[in-house]
Protein backbone atom coordinates (compact mmCIF):
# COMPACT_ATOMS: atom_id res chain seq x y z
CA UNK A 1 0.00 0.00 0.00
CA UNK A 2 1.25 3.43 -0.90
CA UNK A 3 2.15 5.80 1.93
CA UNK A 4 0.43 9.17 1.93
CA UNK A 5 1.68 12.24 3.77
CA UNK A 6 -0.05 15.62 3.73
CA UNK A 7 1.44 18.90 4.87
CA UNK A 8 0.96 22.64 4.59
CA UNK A 9 -2.02 23.25 6.81
CA UNK A 10 -2.20 26.10 9.29
CA UNK A 11 -4.08 29.11 10.57
CA UNK A 12 -5.09 31.76 8.06
CA UNK A 13 -7.38 34.79 8.02
CA UNK A 14 -10.45 34.92 5.78
CA UNK A 15 -9.41 35.84 2.26
CA UNK A 16 -5.97 34.34 2.74
CA UNK A 17 -4.23 31.52 0.89
CA UNK A 18 -2.58 28.22 1.69
CA UNK A 19 -0.95 25.54 -0.39
CA UNK A 20 -1.24 21.93 0.74
CA UNK A 21 1.14 19.19 -0.37
CA UNK A 22 0.63 15.45 -0.56
CA UNK A 23 3.67 13.25 -1.05
CA UNK A 24 2.96 9.69 -2.20
CA UNK A 25 6.11 7.85 -3.27
CA UNK A 26 5.33 5.62 -6.24
CA UNK A 27 1.94 6.95 -7.29
CA UNK A 28 3.24 8.33 -10.58
CA UNK A 29 4.85 5.07 -11.71
CA UNK A 30 1.71 3.15 -10.74
CA UNK A 31 -0.54 5.53 -12.68
CA UNK A 32 -2.77 6.43 -9.74
CA UNK A 33 -5.36 9.12 -9.65
CA UNK A 34 -5.33 11.33 -6.56
CA UNK A 35 -8.03 13.13 -4.59
CA UNK A 36 -8.33 15.74 -1.89
CA UNK A 37 -11.06 15.49 0.73
CA UNK A 38 -11.85 17.50 3.81
CA UNK A 39 -13.76 16.89 7.01
CA UNK A 40 -15.01 19.60 9.30
CA UNK A 41 -15.74 18.79 12.93
CA UNK A 42 -19.02 16.93 13.28
CA UNK A 43 -19.53 16.46 9.54
CA UNK A 44 -18.98 13.76 6.95
CA UNK A 45 -15.85 13.70 4.86
CA UNK A 46 -16.34 15.76 1.70
CA UNK A 47 -14.67 15.22 -1.67
CA UNK A 48 -13.24 18.45 -3.05
CA UNK A 49 -10.86 17.71 -5.90
CA UNK A 50 -9.41 15.03 -8.15
CA UNK A 51 -6.58 14.70 -10.62
CA UNK A 52 -6.69 11.60 -12.80
CA UNK A 53 -3.71 9.64 -14.04
CA UNK A 54 -3.97 11.41 -17.39
CA UNK A 55 -4.05 14.86 -15.79
CA UNK A 56 -7.74 15.70 -15.93
CA UNK A 57 -8.90 17.69 -12.94
CA UNK A 58 -12.21 18.06 -11.16
CA UNK A 59 -13.28 20.42 -8.40
CA UNK A 60 -16.32 20.47 -6.16
CA UNK A 61 -18.66 23.39 -6.68
CA UNK A 62 -17.92 24.60 -3.15
CA UNK A 63 -14.28 25.33 -4.04
CA UNK A 64 -14.44 25.95 -7.79
CA UNK A 65 -12.76 29.21 -8.72
CA UNK A 66 -10.82 29.34 -5.44
CA UNK A 67 -8.90 26.04 -5.23
CA UNK A 68 -6.57 24.46 -7.78
CA UNK A 69 -5.19 20.93 -7.84
CA UNK A 70 -1.89 20.22 -9.53
CA UNK A 71 0.77 17.54 -9.64
CA UNK A 72 4.55 17.28 -9.75
CA UNK A 73 5.01 13.75 -11.09
CA UNK A 74 8.79 13.92 -10.90
CA UNK A 75 8.45 14.22 -7.13
CA UNK A 76 5.27 12.17 -6.62
CA UNK A 77 3.57 15.20 -5.08
CA UNK A 78 0.05 16.54 -5.44
CA UNK A 79 -0.78 20.09 -4.45
CA UNK A 80 -3.94 21.89 -3.46
CA UNK A 81 -3.63 25.64 -3.82
CA UNK A 82 -6.36 27.38 -1.84
CA UNK A 83 -7.17 31.05 -2.39
CA UNK A 84 -9.81 33.35 -0.91
CA UNK A 85 -10.27 31.06 2.07
CA UNK A 86 -13.53 31.28 3.98
CA UNK A 87 -14.49 30.39 7.53
CA UNK A 88 -16.35 27.36 6.19
CA UNK A 89 -13.14 26.00 4.65
CA UNK A 90 -11.94 25.14 8.16
CA UNK A 91 -11.42 21.38 8.20
CA UNK A 92 -8.94 18.55 8.26
CA UNK A 93 -7.73 18.03 4.70
CA UNK A 94 -6.90 14.55 3.47
CA UNK A 95 -5.20 13.17 0.40
CA UNK A 96 -6.40 9.87 -1.07
CA UNK A 97 -4.91 7.46 -3.61
CA UNK A 98 -7.55 6.68 -6.21
CA UNK A 99 -8.31 4.43 -9.19
CA UNK A 100 -6.75 2.41 -10.64
CA UNK A 101 -4.64 1.95 -7.51
CA UNK A 102 -5.67 0.58 -4.16
CA UNK A 103 -7.19 3.22 -1.95
CA UNK A 104 -4.89 4.78 0.66
CA UNK A 105 -5.36 7.78 2.95
CA UNK A 106 -3.03 10.08 4.78
CA UNK A 107 -3.40 11.34 8.36
CA UNK A 108 -4.55 14.75 7.19
CA UNK A 109 -3.45 18.33 7.71
CA UNK A 110 -5.53 20.88 9.60
CA UNK A 111 -6.64 24.12 7.95
CA UNK A 112 -8.20 26.73 10.21
CA UNK A 113 -9.66 29.93 8.80
CA UNK A 114 -10.31 32.45 11.54
CA UNK A 115 -10.40 36.17 12.01
What is the typical, i.e. mean, pLDDT?
Answer: 97
Count of helical regions: 1
Content-based structural category: mainly beta
Give the termini separation.
40 Å
Sum up the overall morphology in one term.
globular
Total strands: the figure is: 11
Question: Would you write up a description of this structure?
Answer:
This protein has 115 residues and is mainly beta. It contains one helix and eleven strands. It has one helix at residues 27-30; strands spanning 5-7, 10-12, 18-23, 33-39, 46-51, 57-59, 67-72, 77-82, 91-98, 104-105, 109-113. Strands 2, 4, 5, 6, 9, 10 and 11 form a seven-stranded mixed beta sheet that branches. A four-stranded antiparallel beta sheet has the order 1-3-8-7, with no helix packed on it. The protein is globular and about 40 Å long. The relative contact order is 0.33. The model has no long low-confidence stretch (mean pLDDT 97).
List the helices and strands and how they pair.
Elements lengths: L4 E3 L2 E3 L5 E6 L3 H4 L2 E7 L6 E6 L5 E3 L7 E6 L4 E6 L8 E8 L5 E2 L3 E5 L2
Parallel strand pairs: 2-11
Antiparallel strand pairs: 1-3, 3-8, 4-5, 4-9, 5-6, 7-8, 9-10, 9-11
